[in-house]
Design brief:
Strand content: 15-25%
Distance between the termini: 44 Å
Number of strands: 13
Number of helices: 16
Strand order of the largest sheet: 6-5-7-9-8
Low-confidence stretches: none
Length: about 325
């Protein structure tokens, strides 16, 4: 019996649904019941009639399911952690707010807005301050709504997405920790100094290389890329938006894509290039294997669940506030 068949049989026996992020390895995506980007997976897993969610992704994604659907059991074959999400924790969040207060901003005058790539504990801190969550797909809409509050926006943890949002809206941004106090106080959007290790690999030189090689090529990138890359692209969008954009192109149209390698490699059979001279592969997203999934299911059946997601109820409720405010607007 193949490992894929063993997984299928165990899933049925345990009333489990297998979900996988688009950046997972091909063999994981092929056997998943649900694939998508982070929030889409959380929503669809929440709506699944299955009682057990086996989540192939990174930690904050599994937490999002537990925040939205506390009645479900959520396990992860590998408890991998997004490098960007690791750049800010509860203590760093508190230190950042304290620094802004030292600059003269009242806490009541700050509205935190966190990218979904953050832990439940950080989302809870954001929720407790009246803030909300955004994704790369709805960031423009959520930012516009947040700014209606008249408060200073503290965007975390991805400085690039925050800077790109500010530039798109014709607003000033500053990065806490590297910009001066005067720049921070004069900014419309204050960004935490975090970033995606994969999307940082793409450079303007990569775009220039492909434009010289193929003059008619299109460039599509994720908004986690540096602003110098985003401003030179033909299309900027979330993972799902990039998939739609590329798949709707005529097959003869060449396109170079600036996002994770596994996704780009699956998009089309030809004329699709990875916008990098190196392989932009997310190491944490690629940790999960078929063997991990099988062992995770076997352990759950033995009553010894591996990597089960649990949250303190106070954290869950406040994180739920931040997510709910976003979902009401999306």
């Amino acid at each position: 019996m193949s490992i894929q068949e063993e997984i299928r049989i165990l899933k049925e026996r345990l009333d489990a649904v297998l979900v996988a992020h688009f950046y997972q390895r091909d063999e994981i995506v092929e056997i998943a019941d649900i694939t998508g980007d982070s929030l889409e997976l959380a929503k669809r897993a929440m709506g699944s009639p299955r009682s057990l969610v086996v989540f192939c992704g990174v930690g904050f994604m599994g937490q999002s399911v537990k925040i939205l659907a506390p009645q479900k059991r959520v396990v992860m074959p590998r408890l991998a952690c997004c490098s960007m999400a690791r750049m800010i924790d509860s203590a760093y969040f508190d230190e950042s707010i304290q620094k802004l207060e030292e600059y003269g901003l009242l806490k009541e005058a700050i509205l935190p807005l966190t990218y979904i790539n953050s832990s439940a504990e950080v989302k809870a801190k954001v929720g407790a301050m009246g803030g909300l969550v955004c994704t790369s797909a709805n960031a423009v809409k959520i930012m516009q709504k947040a700014q209606e509050s008249g408060k200073k926006i503290f965007f975390l943890p991805d400085r690039c997405l925050g800077q790109n949002l500010a530039k798109q809206g014709g607003q000033k941004s500053a990065v806490l920790g590297s910009s001066s106090k005067e720049e921070v106080l004069g900014a419309d959007i204050i960004c935490y100094d975090g970033f995606c290790s994969v999307h940082q690999l793409f450079t303007p030189q990569d775009i220039e290389f492909y434009r010289q090689k193929f003059p008619d090529i299109l460039i599509a990138v994720h908004p986690e890329c540096d602003p110098s890359v985003v401003e030179r692209a033909d299309f900027v969008g979330s993972t799902s938006q990039i998939i739609t954009f590329v798949k709707n192109l005529p097959l003869e149209q060449k396109v170079a894509v600036g996002t994770e390698y596994n996704l780009v490699n699956r998009l089309r059979e030809k004329n699709t290039y990875v916008l990098s001279s190196t392989k932009p592969e997310c190491p944490t997203m690629n940790e999960t294997t078929l063997e991990d999934i099988l062992e995770c299911l076997k352990a759950f059946e033995r009553g010894e669940p591996l990597n089960e997601i649990t949250l303190e109820e106070e954290v869950r409720l406040e994180a739920h506030l931040a997510l709910s405010r976003m979902m009401e607007l999306s």
